[in-house]
Write a structure and sequence with these properties.
The structure is a single chain. By secondary structure, the protein is an alpha/beta fold. Among the domains are: about 15-185 and about 225-280, Aldolase class I (TIM Barrel); about 300-395, Elongation Factor Tu (Ef-tu), domain 3 (Beta Barrel); about 405-500, Nucleotidyltransferase, domain 5 (2-Layer Sandwich). It contains 13 helices and 30 strands. It has an 8-stranded parallel β-barrel with strand order 1-2-3-4-5-6-7-11, surrounded by 5 helices. α1 packs parallel to α2. The longest helix has 22 residues, at about 480-500. The protein is globular and about 100 Å long.
Length: about 600
């Protein structure tokens, strides 16, 4: 077996979510270079857990394509959980996991195996100073805060050589990651423990200082979804090497569609940027045209990638809008017509009216006439969105895409027979030989075609022929049964050689006393166990407050910090909009059970939500 030396290129990774093994394999088949998956416990999506055996299955599948699997252990931990976490990390390492995404610094005080540590976005990695510290204490990759701009990412890249991962698609947490305590405060379900109740997607009233209702029953904290597929090259230029798709709780149609879309976009860029290379092997051949508008989305935003340039919230709904397809032009008792894209039987549509978002199913389509299940609230001029694309979903459901690795096929002579060699795109080889009598073919041209045709019949394997070379002094007569058996044996051997030749990286962990950037740590530091406290003490922190989840009272405490600004959304920002519009402040949010004060820090361009 021979392995060729790969050219020294910066490996670029498309990282996809995996709710389970089935979703993970689908992501890899559709072009992902890596996937992230929750273990049985301690992941930030408690509803997306998997056993060690299941994760091992996914790892074996991924490593065949030189793709990677990362486990999410990114909740904060309590003292009585530390032993279980330590055992879980060891089990994951023994399963050949490629990295562990963590939030709790107590893990760094454990006796760790030589596994890669990845700093979760939950550690709020928003500055070069913070990133530098994390790298020095043992993290080889940092998942950056979603709120960063291109300029801010460049500043961080200029001061570190660590791998930088960044979210490019999916749902957005309105709060700084790891620093939202709203769910814990009002529902006793901690987002930092993987149990977020998503109060940010609820409806609120906005009140002014005199308790006048400025906005009633709107989703005032609900954001649109992130979509940065047009900015991938910009992100490459500022140093991002892993492009992350959110969505461990999304359906498999979302995974197939979105991964395929970003794979296509990245490949187009990498074709012209020779300093970069794809970080896994094989190529997926799609049977559909990916389109992010045709699967789950709440409308799209580029967030703060270019600074504060757009309104990022979706006040009218927290649900998926899908794709805007047209406007109603004619309506009768039980049908309507639209100007725009064609609708099909089984499609789901939605639209806005005075009460908010509503929707219905399409029962049938006859020519231009569309017959919905119910006609309530429809009128001429109404904008229609398709939030369930029946035909597209059917296409995605049947898209059992095979990702194939290109191989060169060489048939050569031996003194007593023939040898078949397969060499894949990574330089990994497999050889089989057959001792048989050499018989010159009566019809060389026909025999050559038969030999090449049989050797190229790779069927349902994970390989695709790029070339067939016959290194022969003559064209022999070879029975198809012999050729087929040699090919099957060689493919089996190449499969095994690919798996055996995968070498996991070793990451050593050494303790240090590098000073933490702060001397005082409030509950925003999420210190929930003695090992985490020991970590920060060793790094020079003098005052350490316990995590919010361990406190007795939530009143008058900052339960959310966000760059989403309600004043900006209402065109009342004195900084970015130079607005002279004045609101009677302070402003308050109110739901059925609680009231919250909004504090605006224009210097830092943030909004704080205080439970009162």
């Amino acid at each position: 077996m021979a392995v060729k030396e790969k050219s020294k290129k910066i490996p670029i990774e498309l990282l996809a979510p995996a709710r389970n093994v089935h979703f993970g394999k689908a992501a890899i088949n559709h072009g992902a270079d890596a996937v992230y998956i929750g273990a049985s416990h301690f992941g930030a999506r408690s509803a997306a857990g998997n056993t060690i055996r299941e994760i091992e299955d996914l790892i074996r599948y991924a490593h065949f394509y030189r793709a990677k699997v990362y486990a999410t252990l990114n909740t904060i931990l309590y003292d009585n959980e530390l032993n279980d976490v330590s055992k879980l990390i060891k089990n994951l390492y023994e399963s050949a996991i490629d990295g562990i995404i963590i939030q709790d610094m107590g893990i760094l005080e454990m006796d760790l195996p030589p596994v890669r540590l990845i700093a979760s976005t939950q550690t709020h990695n928003n500055s070069a100073e913070k990133v530098s510290f994390l790298v020095k204490v043992g993290f080889s990759r940092i998942i950056l805060a979603r709120e960063l701009s291109l300029h801010e990412i460049q500043t961080i890249r200029n001061q570190t050589s660590a791998e930088l991962e960044f979210f490019v698609h999916g749902a957005l947490c309105v709060s700084f990651s790891g620093q939202c305590y709203m769910s814990q405060a009002i529902c006793k379900r901690s987002g930092n423990r993987g149990e977020c109740a998503q109060p940010c997607r609820s409806v609120y009233n906005l009140l002014d200082k005199d308790q006048n209702i400025l906005i009633k029953n709107k989703h005032l904290l609900s954001l649109k979804d992130l979509q940065l597929s047009d900015y991938l090259e910009h992100l490459l230029d500022v140093g991002i090497t892993s492009f992350k798709i959110e969505g461990r709780l999304k359906d498999i149609a979302y995974v197939k569609n979105i991964v395929s879309h970003y794979r296509h976009k990245l490949d187009k860029i990498l074709e012209n940027r020779t300093e970069y290379g794809i970080s896994s092997s094989g190529k997926s051949e799609l049977s559909f045209q990916p389109d992010p508008a045709r699967t789950f989305n709440r409308g799209y935003t580029t967030y703060f990638l270019n600074g504060r340039t757009e309104k990022i919230a979706s006040f009218l709904t927290q649900k998926s809008l899908g794709k805007k397809i047209g406007i109603i032009t004619e309506i009768e008792k039980n049908w309507f017509k639209i100007q725009g894209e064609k609708l099909f039987n089984g499609d789901g549509i939605c639209f806005f009216h005075t009460k908010g978002l509503d929707g219905t199913l399409i029962n049938k389509v006859e020519g231009e006439k569309i017959f919905p299940r119910q006609m309530d609230e429809l009128y001429v001029g109404l904008e229609i969105y398709r939030n369930h694309d029946h035909e597209f979903e059917k296409t995605l459901d049947s898209s059992n895409i095979k990702r194939r690795i290109e191989i060169q096929i060489i048939l050569s002579e031996l003194p007593n027979g023939f040898k078949l060699t397969l060499a894949d795109e990574d330089g990994i080889c497999a050889e089989v030989s057959e001792a048989i009598e050499k018989i010159v073919a009566d019809k060389p041209d026909a025999a050559r075609e038969i030999i090449i045709g049989q050797l190229e019949k790779l069927g349902d394997s994970q390989f695709k022929s790029s070339s067939v070379t016959l290194q022969l002094n003559f064209i022999p007569f070879l029975r198809t049964s012999i050729l087929n058996q040699m090919r099957r044996n060689a493919v089996d051997r190449l499969n095994e050689n690919r798996l055996q030749s995968f070498v996991s990286q070793i990451f050593t962990h050494a303790t240090s006393n590098i000073p933490y950037p702060q001397k005082n740590l409030t509950y925003l530091g999420n210190v929930s166990n003695q090992l985490a406290k020991k970590f920060y003490e060793r790094h020079g922190v003098e005052n350490i407050e316990s995590a919010f989840e361990l406190s007795e009272s939530s009143k008058e405490r900052e339960i959310m910090t966000t760059k989403h600004c309600i004043r900006y959304h209402l065109d009342a920002c004195p900084i970015h909009q130079k607005s002279i519009k004045k609101l009677n402040e302070p402003l308050f949010l109110q739901d059925n059970h609680h009231k919250y004060r909004l504090d605006f820090d224009c210097k830092l361009c943030i909004m704080k939500v205080i439970l009162i």
